[in-house]
Amino acid sequence: KAGVTQTPRYLIKTRGQQVTLSCSPISGHRSVSWYQQTPGQGLQFLFEYFSETQRNKGNFPGRFSGRQFSNSRSEMNVSTLELGDSALYLCASSPRGFGIRTEAFFGQGTRLTVV
Amino acid sequence: GESVGLHLPTLSVQEGDNSIINCAYSNSASDYFIWYKQESGKGPQFIIDIRSNMDKRQGQRVTVLLNKTVKHLSLQIAATQPGDSAVYFCAENALLTGGGNKLTFGTGTQLKVEL
User: Could you tell me the CA-to-CA distances from B5 to A77, B2, B22, B89, B106 in Å, in that order?
Assistant: First the structure.
């Protein structure tokens, strides 16, 4: 079974630009979550999608958004990039259903550098 | 609160020795915990999980202990190998209103295995 696939692996963007990151979950997993990892803040929850609906959102500005498609693939978008958005963005998929907690499996991440 | 913290940022052990990585959590309502291993350039890899109705759970060379009284959990790695060198995170999987999930991560412990 293929793991979580994130594309691209690396990105360099300029301040003010916008970026879209993609995540393909493990086949059969309907829950996709996004996390931001930085040396200063560690791993921070961005949002979770389940069956194309955003169930929860972390404490990030509205510049961070996402969506999930009917095949469970997910994208996250960051608009008006700031230098502080430079981070490793991780996607995690899980077979969990409503109210069910199970382990989440992470992709390799997308390393975003804003210059 | 939901903070999950680690006692030691770096742990150095000799190859073949046992390693113990500790984690404290503050949310007394937390009832599901996961340990992840993250190697350089990779996403977090699931190691083992434990639910609050258990005090101990064993995997292959790893054991997780949960002490709900003092809100503490630990990861024990037996016969530590060079391949165990990585950053280890504990995470609390919180069930949110609306049925959503999110992982709250600790700050991480760097495990270094010395030959």
Answer: 29, 10, 9, 9, 5
